[in-house]
Amino acid sequence: MKSIIVVLFSFMMLACAPLNQVSQSTNYGNAPQWGPAGYDDARYYYLPDIEAYYDIHYNVFIYYSGNTWVRRSYLPSRYRDYNLYDGYKVVITDYNGNSPYSNFNEYKLKYKKGYRGHEQRNIGVRTENSDNRRKVTEEVRTERKVINTERKKDAKVKNNSSNRNSESNRKNEKKSDNRNNNGRR
């Protein structure tokens, strides 16, 4: 009798317990602020200026590295000066599965570097922070150029002065050699 009560109690507990529901969202990620406005259902952008793709669902860039396509949350250092807000974005619709690059050769010919189609508005507006970051970066680069130029000038001055010193040292050595040789004769 006790066992029947335990089984019934257990059954009631299971029936009343909330069911674990697994929900899967089809919108993995949101479009970036630099993305083109009006394409809510897009999954990939092609960035002709750098010949790379952006996967909106996973928030990753897809670009060719070495001899394979890679997915990274960042662009490689060779694109550090590329401005995503100003660059043109082509919304990709004719891709196979998870590989938008299946038609890369066609895109490369159709959308060459510098391609500009119809006018695009970005989803978001570039923030002051990104503008300030760009200004700071430009200032740092300018300072580096000035410092490098000054270093080069200093090196030239040092080389010239060391050349002069070495020439005068050689002359002094010759004079002392001549004196020593004259004394020996």
Gyration radius from CA atoms, angstroms: 34 Å
Q: Given the C-alpha coordinates, what overall shape results? A: elongated
Strands in their spatial order, largest beta sheet = 4-3-2-1-5
Separate helix tally: 3
Distance between the termini: 134 Å
Structural class of the helix and strand makeup?
alpha+beta
Main sheet, how many strands, which sense, barrel? 5 strands, antiparallel
Order of helices and strands: HEEEEEHH
Identify low-pLDDT runs: 18-27, 132-137
Number of domains: 2
- Strand elements, count: 5
Helix content: 40-55%
Beta-strand percent range: 5-15%
What value does the average pLDDT take?
A: 73
Question: What does this molecule look like?
Answer:
A hairpin with a 4-residue loop joins strand 1 and strand 2 (52-55). The chain has a five-stranded antiparallel beta sheet, with no helix packed on it. Helices cover 43% and strands 12% of the residues. By secondary structure, the protein is an alpha+beta fold. The longest helix has 57 residues, at 128-184. It has three helices and five strands. The protein starts with a helix and ends with a helix. The protein has two domains: 44-124, no CATH class; 127-185.
